[in-house]
Specification:
Helices cover 65% and strands 10% of the residues. By secondary structure, the chain is mainly alpha-helical. A three-stranded mixed beta sheet has the order 1-5-2, with no helix packed on it. It is globular. The two termini are 12 Å apart. The C terminus is likely disordered.
Length: 293
């Protein structure tokens, strides 16, 4: 059966507002920073391996996560709306956006959450090697040439061996679930819970049947055939809210990490960006009702 429409509780609406603010503030802050400032930790990292800048790769992961999460924010909290409009929540797609945002930004966080610039570059070249491997896999799947990309990967190994003799470029970084766990631990959150939410959102995005049981609140109805029952399903908004919160918090944390490592006055800049976001947000009075479908 199709899920029953459910009004999102006010306490969750309040939590969504916080997440929207974090996402949009991070987006504004990112837009105001381009290159690391001279002498900063990221500038030093870029000088240690100038062929491919660690700062640019880390920023790319943050930009990707920001794009996913900003789409969610624009859907649930549009800048303009009709007060009589019902804002219908697409449960599975919203979970998928939150998951994509979380795992993208978690990669950037892993690159930036280091003791020094040398460690950052070591993680950077390992991440690059795996990324190029994904590129090769995608091209091979489409029966496309990979020779130049394989040369690029070999060049990376050679350059990194010379510039960073203590780093094994082929050592794989954490996989997707483990990098989400890493992001949770870095923020003193429960890595098991975040791994569960990430897997749940993956099941939602892939159309896996188990999500139809785990992701909904179920009410068993009449037995219409022997052993078969009608079941009313309501989306479990707590799961969506927690996943979005994980993505928004990680975006904020990683953005501030990038800003700090790049030598920007990130505290002042973040507060200024947050004030601007709040000023632009529509008034709460007359905000459209939100319903899950």
């Amino acid at each position: 059966m199709q899920p029953e429409p459910t009004v999102v509780p006010d306490d969750h609406i309040d939590r969504w507002k916080v997440a929207v603010s974090q996402i949009r503030t991070s987006a504004v802050l990112l837009s105001r920073m381009i290159d690391p400032r001279p002498g900063s930790g990221l500038a030093v990292a870029d000088s240690l391996y100038p062929s491919e800048k660690a700062s640019a790769w880390a920023r790319s992961y943050l930009d990707a996560g920001c794009e996913h999460l900003n789409l969610w924010a624009d859907l649930v909290a549009p800048a303009e709306f009709d007060a009589n409009t019902v804002n219908n929540v697409a449960y599975r797609p919203y979970l998928l956006l939150a998951r994509a945002g979380l795992e993208s930004v978690a990669h950037g966080l892993w690159l930036l959450d280091v003791e020094d610039s040398a460690e950052c570059v070591g993680r950077h070249v390992r991440m690059m090697h795996r990324d190029i491997g994904y590129f090769i896999k995608a091209r091979r799947a489409g029966q496309l040439s990979v020779s130049k990309i394989e040369d690029q990967q070999k060049t990376l190994v050679d350059r990194a061996s010379e510039a960073l003799p203590t780093v094994t470029t082929t050592d794989k970084p954490p996989g997707y679930e483990n990098i989400v766990r890493y992001a949770a631990t870095a923020q003193e959150q429960d890595p098991d819970r975040w791994a569960y939410l990430w897997n749940l959102a993956s099941g939602a995005g892939h159309g896996q049947n188990w999500f139809s049981l785990e992701g909904y609140l179920l009410a068993v109805g009449d037995e219409y055939e022997p052993g078969y029952y009608r079941v009313a399903r309501r989306p479990d908004v707590e799961l969506l809210t927690e996943t979005v919160e994980a993505g928004a918090a990680t975006l904020r944390y990683a953005t501030l990490l990038w800003a700090g490592r790049a030598g920007y006055p990130y505290r002042e800049m973040y507060v200024q960006a947050m004030c601007e976001v709040i000023d632009r947000m529509p008034t709460i009075t007359g905000q459209p009702r939100s319903a899950e479908t």
